Amino acid sequence: MLQNLSRTFLRRQYAKAAAQIKTKEIESSHSKPLISCRRTQFNLLQHERADAKFGTLPLCSKGWLHHKSKGDHFTLNASITSAQLKAEMKSLSDFLATSEIQMHPQLLENLQQELGIKQLTGIQAQAMPIVDGSFHTLIAAETGCGKTLAYLLPVLNKRLKDKSPESGERHFNTPSVLILTPGRELATQIAQVARKLCANTELKVKALLGGNTKQLMLNPQFEEVDILVATLGAISKLVTTGIYHMEQVRHVVLDEADTLLDDSFTEKLTYFMRRFPFHRNHVQDARIVGTQLLLASATMPTNTREILQRVIDVETIREVVSPHLHHLMAHVTQKFLRMSKSDRPANLLTLVKQDLAKHRPLIVFSNKSATSDYVSIFLNNSGVNCLNLNGDMLMKIRLGRFEEFQRGQCDVLSTTDVGSRGLDTTRARHVLNFDFPLHISDYIHRCGRIGRVGSSEKTLVTNFISSRREIDVVQRIEHAARTGGLLPNVNANIKNIINKRIMADMKEAGVPMPQEEAF
C-alpha cells in the first residue's frame, strides 16, 4: 500500500513539474496561448498545433465525463483582433473603380449615408459581381461577414435600372424580388435594411410575417410591392389563395438557406420553388426571361445539392465560399465551463451582473422555449431586466422584442435558436449558452451573434457544460481548435440528424423498423 501511495505522490509531483515548465514556456513566448486551461499542462501555443485524428490528441475536456471534473474549464483565446479583420476589407470606391458594376447613384448614396458603409468585406467584393452577372449563386460564408448586402446590393441595383416608365403596367401584390427567411425577426431586419437602401427611389419594400396569415386571407391588402421579404409559411399560403402573384419575380433569395433546406421545410419549399423558371436564366435569348436563384448561409447541410436538384440544375449554380467557413471564429474568445446543472442559475446571475456593471449587452441562449422562459423569469425576479424571445410566444407578444434589445431598451435577451439565425446583433458583446447546443451548426450561429462587421469591441462566448451529450460536442470543438481544422459534422439539417439517431436507437434496442407504405 505504501508503494502505491509513493507512486501516486510521484505522479502528482511529475504533473506539477510539467505544468510549471509549460507555464514558463508560455511566459517566455510573450504571447497568449491559443488554448488556456485550468490544468496548464493542456495549454496550447500556436506552434504546437498538430494534424491528428479525433481521439489521438490529449484534450482538456477528455476527463469531463467524470463527476469530479466539475469546476474545470478551458478558454479558446482570440488569435486576431477586430482591427485586423477590418484591415482585410476593401474600399467601396476602389471596388467600384475596378469592377464592372455601375451602381445607381441613389443606391450608392443610401449605402453610404443611411447605412454608413464605406468598405466591403472580402465575401461582398467576391460575390457582388457574380450576382450582378445574373448567375444562380450560393454564398456560403461565416456569420457576421455581410452576406445580406452581398446579394441585396446587386439585386436592388438591377431592379432600379430596370425600373422605368416604359417597363409596363404595375400590378398590386406582384413583386419582382422575393426574399425567403425561416424567421420573422430576420424577415423584419432584412426589410429594414432594404428600405434604407431604397430610400428616395421608386422601389417599394414589404415584410410579410407569419402569425396573422388567416387575418390577411380574410382581409387582404393590395398594394404596389417590388421587394417582398417573407417567411415561407406565410407567403406559400397567400400565393395559394391568389392574394400574391409570383409571375413577375426575377430574383428568389433563400436567406439562412441551411435552415430553409432542413427536412422540416423541404417538402413545402420545393413545391413552392417549382413555380419559378430558374432554367430559363441561362437561355441566351433576350425575349426569354428567367428567375435568378440566390442562396446565403453560414453553414450548409450535406444534402444541399440533392434538395436543390429537385428545382434547378445545380451545375448552373456559382459558389462563393469563404475560406473561414465551418471554422471557429478566431476573433472571439470562447470559454467552456464544466459545472452541474444545479450550479447554472447562480453562475448565470453572477456573469449577467458583471456584464451589466460593465455596460456590456448579452444574449442568453437556451435549447428549449421552457428554459428560455425560466431564464427570463429567474433574472427578472433577481432584479435584472431581461427580455424573452422564443418561437412558442404569441405573435403580438413576440413582435418587437428583438428591436427593443437592439434599441438599447434592455441589455439582456433570453432566447432560443430563434434568435441565432442571421440577426444582426452588433450591440451584443457577450453570448452565454445557458444550455450548450447539441449540434455544431447551432453553436456556429450562436457565436455569430457577436464579433460582426461593424463591431470593434472585444467579444466573448461563455458556455455552461453539464451533460454527456454536451461534452461530446465540446470535445469535437476542442479538437478542431487544437488542430486548426474544420469543425466536424456541421450539418444544419437537424430534423434529419434526430430521425437518424432515433432509428439507430431503435435498431440497437431491437425494435422493428417502420415500413414505408406501398403505393
Description:
- Residues 98-411, 128-318 form the Helicase ATP-binding domain.
- Keywords: ATP-binding, Helicase, Hydrolase, Nucleotide-binding.
- One of its GO terms (molecular function) is ATP binding.
- InterPro entries: DEAD/DEAH_box_helicase_dom (IPR011545), Helic_SF1/SF2_ATP-bd_DinG/Rad3 (IPR014013), Helicase_ATP-bd (IPR014001), Helicase_C-like (IPR001650), P-loop_NTPase (IPR027417).
- There is one protein chain.
- With 519 residues, this protein is α/β, with parallel strands linked by helices.
- It has two domains: 27-82 and 330-500, Rossmann fold (3-Layer(aba) Sandwich); 92-321, P-loop containing nucleotide triphosphate hydrolases (Rossmann fold).
- The chain is built from 19 helices and 17 strands.
- It has helices at 2-29, 82-87, 92-98, 105-113, 122-132, 147-162, 184-197, 213-218, 232-240, 257-260, 263-273, 304-308, 344-357, 369-381, 395-398, 401-406, 440-447, 468-483, 494-508; strands at 35-37, 73-76, 90-91, 119-120, 136-140, 177-181, 205-208, 227-231, 251-255, 292-297, 317-321, 333-338, 362-365, 387-389, 412-415, 430-433, 460-465.
- It has an eight-stranded mixed beta sheet with strand order 1-2-12-17-16-13-15-14, with helices on both faces.
- Strand 16 (430-433), helix 17 (440-447) and strand 17 form a beta-alpha-beta unit.
